[in-house]
Amino acid sequence: MTQTAVETPLQVLEHEPYLQVTWRDTQTPARGFVVIDQLVTGIATGGLRMRPGCTVNEVGELAREMTLKMGAFGIHVGGAKGGIDFDSADPRAEEVRERFLQAVRPLLERFWVTAGDLGTQQEQLDRAFSRVGIDETSLHAAVVRAPDGAEVRSRIRQAFNTRTEGLKLSELVGGYGVAEAALAALEHRDIPAETARAVVQGFGAMGGSTALYLARAGVKIVGITDAQGLILNETRGLDVELLLSARTTGGVIDRSALRDDDMECPGDSWLSQDVDVLVPAAVSYTITADNCDQIRGKLVVEAANVPTTPEAEQRLLERGVTVVPDFIANTGAAAGAWWVILGEVVSPSGACSRLSAQIRPLVQDLMNRADETGTSMRTAGVQFAKENSQRLIREYGGAVAFRDLFPSTPQGLQFTEGDEGPATGLSHASDVADIAEAVIHSPNAAFPGAVDVVDVSLETGREPNGAACPAYWPGPADPDSAQS
Ligand SMILES: NC(=O)c1ccc[n+]([C@@H]2O[C@H](COP(=O)([O-])OP(=O)(O)OC[C@H]3O[C@@H](n4cnc5c(N)ncnc54)[C@H](O)[C@@H]3O)[C@@H](O)[C@H]2O)c1
């Protein structure tokens, strides 16, 4: 059976998405979108957001970013995203979300592994999945592919419910990865962490843990902004743990907790602080051509999605400021979740160890490539991610491959007592986790070495197992007959 998806190699940022769906609600003005940018092993991953004004273009861009993230980290899964144009604060939001899930259910059953995103918390999404009768988890499409779904479910439950230093997997690993990316970039620029100064915009899931782990590594966090403004302490730096304990669930710091010499300043003054590293961890398009010349530091490490406009990034490149792009720096949460799903790690701190081992050489390799070629790290990273995606499609199949998502045998499992903390940063995580960690050193890990660019079509000749196939699957049912 021939399934033709694209004729040309993966053209991340330029290619048409593999699949684009628009949904119209029958009971409210809500509209919803799913974009599957790229399938790898017949599956794609990306969150579901809900916000007024959400468009199919926005969802498409984010789906492409997911392809880049998975490619850059060598995870054999494609990129996707969902979006609903509706106010998540509206009392009808939950029912709208459920009708949307029902409408796109065939995708959720098999192809699209989704998760919480802007305006949609993971718990809300899992509840909605249960109510429409798909599963207890939004990760369903991955779970049903496992040889032992119960084991995967229990692994997901344990890892996602474990708190490390009070933080859940989603709150911990993302920011930890950003901190590791920043530390690797500092090292590359010969700036010791102990002398480095940083400012972080945003103090939510990403900004909070980024600031925490940078501070743990010795970086002086001189400024943190939240939606109410900048808190600054240029002399002795901020007490990040104190501020975390004074943080509301909305990521706003209770000002009554500030020390006498902590100052309150306007939010937009975060950009002009005398620091080595700036971490945008709040909103998109915050660094623009109009304000980027205020930046005095040498590094911008993107925790938020698309915080720097292309014009600003070009200008910063010309000024010798390195931007560590979002799809490298902020992929920790998505990668960590996938490593848990695939059984490559079984706890948040295990995910941190794995992330550290992967992101540090990746950042330094991409900085080398960018320096050597005079391009931005984003350009070097996009090329690397594209090459990796093509390799993954070649090895695991693209649009119709429906196997090899999980390793068939758990060979390579290495059990250790507790989690091995990485060399820097997460010193306390290893003290907290008390479960045995299994880390499979999988062949899927990203590899910083050069990869031959190959011309890959999504045709693979592999088919799903017929018995497990839902009725809407378009291909033949006999897996052996289709094996090339
Ligand atoms: N949470 C994740 O797993 C994850 C993963 C990858 C990327 N991201 C991206 O990181 C960014 C932050 O996500 P999050 O999950 O930490 O959000 P969050 O809602 O937990 O926190 C947002 C923080 O930004 C602050 N903020 C809001 N508007 C601001 C403004 N104008 N100026 C300064 N601060 C402002 C809020 O007060 C809060 O502290 C988003 O772009 C998101 O898409 C998040």
List keywords for this structure.
alpha/beta, Rossmann fold, 2 domains, seven-stranded mixed beta sheet, six-stranded mixed beta sheet, 16 helices, disordered C terminus, binds nicotinamide-adenine-dinucleotide
Strand arrangement, largest sheet? 10-9-8-7-11-12-13
Would you count the extended β strands for me?
15
Global structural class: alpha/beta
Estimated helix fraction: 25-40%
**What is the CATH class name of the largest domain?**
Alpha Beta
Poorly predicted ranges: 1-13, 409-484
Count of structural domains: 2
User: Which architecture name of the largest domain does CATH use?
Assistant: 3-Layer(aba) Sandwich
Q: Radius of gyration from the CA trace?
A: 22 Å
Main sheet?
7 strands, mixed
Characterize the overall form: globular
Give the distinct bound molecules: nicotinamide-adenine-dinucleotide
CATH superfamily of the largest domain: NAD(P)-binding Rossmann-like Domain
Q: State the CATH topology of the largest domain.
A: Rossmann fold
If you had to describe this structure to a student in words, what would you say it looks like?
The protein is an alpha/beta fold and 484 residues long. It folds into 2 domains: 19-144, Rossmann fold; 165-373 and 409-471, NAD(P)-binding Rossmann-like Domain (Rossmann fold). 36% of the residues lie in helices and 12% in strands. The protein has helices spanning 56-72, 93-103, 105-110, 122-131, 140-143, 149-161, 169-188, 205-216, 240-245, 310-318, 326-329, 332-341, 348-373, 377-396, 429-432, 479-482; strands spanning 19-24, 31-36, 44-45, 48-50, 78-85, 112-113, 197-201, 220-226, 229-232, 263-265, 277-280, 299-301, 322-324, 415-416, 437-438. It has a 7-stranded mixed sheet, sandwiched between helices. Strands 1, 2, 3, 4, 5 and 6 form a 6-stranded mixed sheet that branches. A hairpin with a 2-residue loop joins strand 8 (220-226) and strand 9 (229-232). Helix 1 (56-72) packs across helix 14 (377-396). The relative contact order is 0.14. Residues 1-13 and 409-484 have low confidence and may be disordered. The structure holds nicotinamide-adenine-dinucleotide (NAD). Nicotinamide-adenine-dinucleotide (NAD) binds next to helix 7, helix 8 and strand 8.
